[in-house]
Design brief:
Blueprint (H helix, E strand, L loop, with lengths): L1 H7 L5 E5 L5 E4 L1 H7 L3 H4 L4 H4 L11 H15 L3 E2 L3 E2 L2 E2 L5 E2 L2 E10 L5 E10 L1 H6 L10
Antiparallel strand pairs: 1-2, 1-8, 3-7, 4-7, 5-6, 7-8
């Protein structure tokens, strides 16, 4: 599996790999730069412990919506493209920064057709999303 994960670090777009219980295996440089994180600090952690909702935003729903998407991937064993999602990220000092994402979650199946890994891909759409504050008009990834 390490050979396969090494490909991750050659990709120019943001990818994170997690297990079916949402434990982060690895993330490439593009992902870490966009999310203000360090792969050494998030590897081995639960996705939602590493990336919690912003406690300063009472309308934060990133954890709930991403959990729903990941459960769809696990149950249906196919890719789920989410609507654009506000999901703030915190920097190393703990300060949260507004971010909007276009997330796509894809399963990697084992030889028995079971989900072995989940690939989480995001594109930062913050600048565009700020121009169109009506979330109902945001497209699906």
């Amino acid at each position: 599996m390490q050979d396969h994960l090494s490909v991750l670090h050659c990709l120019p777009h943001a990818y994170l790999v997690m297990t079916p219980d949402f434990t982060i295996i690895d993330a490439n440089r593009a992902y870490c730069e966009l999310t203000l994180t360090d792969p050494d600090l998030i590897g081995g952690r639960n996705m939602f412990k590493a990336f919690p909702d912003n406690p300063g935003d009472p309308e934060a729903n990133g954890v709930r919506n991403l959990t729903t998407s990941l459960k769809i991937v696990l149950a249906m064993k196919h890719t789920d493209a989410m609507r654009w999602q506000r999901y703030d990220v915190r920097d190393r000092s703990g300060v949260f920064h507004e971010r909007h994402w276009s997330p796509i979650n894809s399963p990697i199946l084992d030889d028995n057709g079971e989900v072995k890994l989940i690939i989480h891909h995001v594109s930062d759409v913050t600048r565009v999303a700020r121009k169109f504050p009506c979330r109902e008009t945001w497209p699906v990834a």
